[in-house]
Structures are given as structure tokens and as C-alpha cells.
Design brief:
- By secondary structure, the chain is an alpha/beta fold.
- The chain folds into two domains: 27-67 and 413-467, Golgi alpha-mannosidase II (Immunoglobulin-like, Sandwich), CATH 2.60.40; 73-406, TIM Barrel, CATH 3.20.20.80.
- It is 28% helix and 26% strand.
- It has eleven helices and 22 strands.
- It has helices at 3-24, 80-87, 91-102, 154-164, 197-213, 240-257, 275-281, 284-287, 304-311, 336-348, 392-401, and strands at residues 27-33, 42-43, 48-49, 51-52, 58-70, 73-77, 113-118, 169-174, 220-222, 263-271, 292-300, 316-321, 351-356, 360-361, 381-384, 387-390, 409-413, 421-425, 431-436, 443-449, 452-458, 463-467.
- Strands 1, 2, 3, 4, 5, 17, 18, 19, 20, 21 and 22 form an eleven-stranded mixed β-sheet that branches. An eight-stranded parallel β-barrel has the order 6-7-8-9-10-11-12-13, surrounded by five helices. A three-stranded mixed β-sheet has the order 14-15-16.
- Strand 20 and strand 21 form a beta hairpin.
- Mean pLDDT is 94; it is low at 3-25.
- InterPro entries: GH (IPR017853), GH30_C (IPR033452), Glyco_hydro_30 (IPR001139), Glyco_hydro_30_TIM-barrel (IPR033453), Glyco_hydro_b (IPR013780).
Length: 468
């Protein structure tokens, strides 16, 4: 038989065989972290293949036709202290660390959301604002406004991050206005003087404009970090009626006049007070300027975010802070705790992001401010000169940040007490399921999608990210 004729007859068979093999070889990949540290966010060699379901094991059913909130990203607070440690690394070590954190290829973890402090936070070496004045002096015209200290570390580090991933979203949060704007003339506690509401609104506008001039776009700001906790240094007491008045009469109009498109996020404190953001959103004059509400989880239950969503379903929700720490040199890693509480808990309750506190510290958890700084805030990474140690916060964020890219959407999955989970569909159509085995024994289960299932097993205390 002529060679070309044989090829003509064989071609349909070759194509059919190729199609079967392609279907056979499509499965779910698994990135795994085990509680005993034998596996720390590593891709497993063997894929898991979908096949007809026939098992008595618990089944996690995925339905990508039922969708919830879009996802903006996962990441950390880049505190002044974090930036200080990073900028002091050698150029090569710094470049390698930032690539690992913010690039998405290979084993890099693809952090996509950053929180910056507007002025100092309690994890800076010293307290400062962008318009500090000698005691007894004021600057209502903001003639002395200057990003000064941030030029040394935060701004150059952010520029390197944006060179790696220009689409990283940035949230700015103030810990305190300049002391001369406050009732107690101190960086710690006190309230914003009503006479300076308009000046402070211009101060926040100038921050956004000056950062933009540096090539750093602030996607959103919160009005005040932990407004009901005036014990940090720096800090401010800002009760809900005051925050609402500041937004509707000063900040909202100032943003509009300056054509600022940065989102306004209210509250930025614990889940035990959902009444705070709800009361502000109940006022249409304030609500029209507000994108959504931010939450921490040092108090209350994560389900409070759903309470706010149900009260105002047209507004977004964000998870803006929780400290995630582990004992030094522990033989185990409690990976299921932050994954269940934050990665799964916050997103199953409508949050568009998850931010953990904070990105980096040194082995002594420094720096932190006096009179109210945090002496126990472990970084996602510990930096000791050029040496880097990866901690619990790093791995917990990695399980989401690498795969659930901005623009993903949460999709339906049935939950379980032993196997809490959350599912997403990514912009390129992939499905991601994050599962935490919080039980005291190994769990066999199925992942069901479109009538077929993957058989999976997670050891106790393990977390798996499944991607297909």
C-alpha cells in the first residue's frame, strides 16, 4: 500500500488515540504541607485523575455555576520594619527573596496584595507622620508634607516589587494623623480634632498623589487602623459616628475634587463589632463614597463578615490583618489553623482578599515602637542579614496566593467539620480547591466535579491545594 494511503487510513486512529491519552493525562495537581514538616508547600509528583465516582468516602462537590465574590489577592503587610530589613539585604539576596514572594512561576508564591502603613505603624523603628511639627506648632496648609522616611525603605522596596509584578494591589492604612491634629497632641491615642477633618482629608489625598508620583498606585485606603484600639503607638480613637462624618463631609468630597479613584474602606478592626461598619453604611451620604469594610480577627467570629454582607450586599468586604505566628524551631507546623481561619474562613464569608501581619521581622521580632509596639510579631519570613527563614504565615498565604490569582471568583463547595475547604475558578478557567484536615486522623475523601471524582487523602493537620 502506498505510504500516503496508509497514513490517510491511520490518521483518524492516531488522532483518536491522542485524544484519549490527553484526556487520560488530565488530572488535579496537589501542593501539600504536612504538620510534621516533612513536606512544606511542595508540588506532589503524581497527579490525581478524575474518574466515575464510586466510594463511601466524604465527597467535596464543586459547582462552578454557583459563584460568589471576586478575589483581589492574598498577601501581607509590608511594614516599615519589613521594608527596612529587606532593603538592608545585599542586592542579589533581596532580588531572590522578592522574586520568590511576588513572581508566579516555578516555586515562587505569587503574593498579589500588599498593605502599607500611611506614616509609621507600631512595627517601625520610630514613630513619624508625613507632617511632624515641633510641639505647639501646626501646619494646616501642609507645607511641610513629605514622605521622607518612606524614601529610605518602603518606596524602593515597593518599586522592586512592582518591577516583578506591576499588578500587585496596595492598601494604605494610617495608624495616626500628625500629633498636632489630635486632641492629646500625642502619637498614641487621642481623637482627631473636628477643626482638622478637612486638613486630614487633604493629607490623605497628598499621600495618594505623592505615592503615585513615585510610580506606586494606592488601590484602596482604610480610614484608621484599629479605630477602637487607641493603645498602640501610634494609634487613634475613631468612633463610628466620627468616621462616618469624616468620610461624607470631608474625605469623600476631597477625593472627588482631586479625582482620586482610590477605594475607601471603613472600619479595619475586629469581627466583634460588625455594627460599626453597618452603622456607617446605613447613612447614604457616607455610603456613596465607600467601597466596603475591612476586618481583623483578634476578636469576634469570622462569620460577622457575612452579617455585614447581608446588611449591605452591594458593598465589598476585605480581610486586612491578623498576626500569624508559630513557636521558634518547632518540630511541627500548625498550618491548618490560619488556613481554616483566614484563607477558608474569610473567603467563605465574602472577603475579596486575605492579608496577614506582617511580611518580615528579624530573629528578635524587631523593630517595634516603644509605648505600645508589638514585641511578638513574627514575620512571614525572618531575615537575619541575608539569611531567610520561612514561617507559618508564609506557607499559609502560599497555599492561596500562588493559584488563586486576582480576578478569580469563589465557587460553591460543600463544607465539612473535619475537612473545611474553599473553591475558586481562576481567570484562565482552572479550578482551585484548598482543603485543611483539622481532624486528629488521616482523612480519605473525594473531590467531585462534573460527575467525576478524584480520590484524595490528607494526613492529620495537613493542607492541600488541588488544581485542575
Amino acid at each position: 500500500m502506498n505510504k500516503n494511503v496508509r497514513l490517510f487510513f491511520l490518521l483518524p486512529l492516531l488522532l483518536a488515540t491522542s485524544t484519549v491519552n490527553a484526556q487520560k493525562n488530565t488530572g488535579a495537581s496537589l501542593w501539600l504541607t504536612k504538620a510534621d514538616r516533612s513536606v512544606l508547600f511542595e508540588k506532589q509528583k503524581d497527579a490525581l485523575y478524575f474518574k466515575p465516582l464510586n466510594s463511601n468516602n466524604f465527597t467535596i462537590s464543586i459547582d462552578d455555576k454557583q459563584t460568589y465574590q471576586p478575589i483581589d489577592g492574598f498577601g501581607f503587610a509590608l511594614t516599615g520594619g519589613s521594608a527596612m530589613h529587606i532593603i538592608h539585604m545585599s542586592a542579589n539576596s533581596r532580588a531572590a527573596l522578592l522574586k520568590e514572594l511576588f513572581a508566579t512561576n516555578g516555586n515562587n508564591i505569587g503574593v498579589s496584595y500588599i498593605r502599607l502603613s500611611i506614616g509609621a505603624s507600631d512595627l517601625n523603628e520610630r514613630v513619624f507622620s508625613y507632617d511632624d511639627m515641633p510641639v505647639g506648632q501646626t501646619d494646616p496648609a501642609l507645607k511641610h508634607f513629605d514622605l521622607g522616611p518612606d524614601h529610605q525603605d518602603v518606596i524602593p522596596v515597593m518599586k522592586e516589587i512592582l518591577a516583578i509584578n506591576p499588578s500587585v494591589k496596595i492598601l494604605g492604612s494610617p495608624w495616626s494623623p500628625p500629633a498636632w491634629m489630635k486632641t492629646n497632641n500625642d502619637t498614641r491615642g487621642g481623637r482627631l480634632k473636628p477643626a482638622y477633618y478637612g486638613v486630614y482629608a487633604k493629607y490623605l489625598v497628598k499621600y495618594i498623589q505623592e505615592m503615585k508620583a513615585q510610580g506606586i498606585t494606592i488601590d484602596a485606603i482604610t480610614i484608621q487602623n484599629e479605630p477602637l484600639h487607641p493603645g498602640n503607638n501610634p494609634s487613634l480613637l475613631l468612633v463610628a459616628p466620627d468616621e462616618g462624618e469624616f468620610i461624607k463631609s470631608y474625605l469623600g468630597p476631597a477625593f472627588k475634587a482631586a479625582r482620586i479613584h482610590t477605594k475607601i474602606i471603613i472600619y479595619d478592626h475586629n469581627a466583634d463589632r460588625p455594627d460599626y461598619p453597618i452603622s456607617i453604611l446605613n447613612d447614604p451620604a457616607a455610603s456613596k463614597y465607600i467601597d466596603g469594610s475591612g476586618f481583623h480577627l483578634y476578636g469576634g467570629d469570622i462569620e460577622a463578615l457575612t452579617d455585614v454582607h447581608n446588611a449591605h450586599p452591594d458593598k465589598n468586604l476585605y480581610f486586612t490583618e491578623q498576626m500569624v505566628v508559630e513557636p521558634e524551631n518547632s518540630s511541627t507546623i500548625d498550618i491548618v489553623s490560619p488556613v481554616k481561619r483566614l484563607i477558608i474562613g474569610a473567603t467563605r464569608n465574602w472577603s475579596r482578599n486575605v492579608l496577614e501581619w506582617n511580611l518580615a521581622a528579624d530573629p528578635d521580632y524587631k523593630p517595634y515602637t516603644d509605648r505600645g509596639g508589638c514585641p511578638m510579631c513574627q514575620g512571614a519570613v525572618t531575615i537575619d542579614k541575608n539569611a531567610v527563614k520561612r514561617n507559618l504565615a508564609y506557607y499559609s498565604i502560599a497555599h492561596a496566593s500562588k493559584f488563586v490569582r486576582p480576578g478569580s471568583v469563589r465557587i460553591a463547595s460543600n463544607n465539612s467539620d473535619k475537612l473545611p475547604n474553599v473553591a475558586f475558578k481562576t481567570p484562565d478557567g482552572k479550578k482551585v480547591l484548598i482543603v485543611a484536615n483539622v481532624s486528629q486522623s488521616s482523612q480519605d475523601f473525594n473531590i467531585k466535579y462534573k460527575g467525576k471524582a478524584v480520590a484524595a487523602t490528607l494526613d492529620k493537620g495537613s493542607v492541600g491545594s488541588y488544581i485542575w
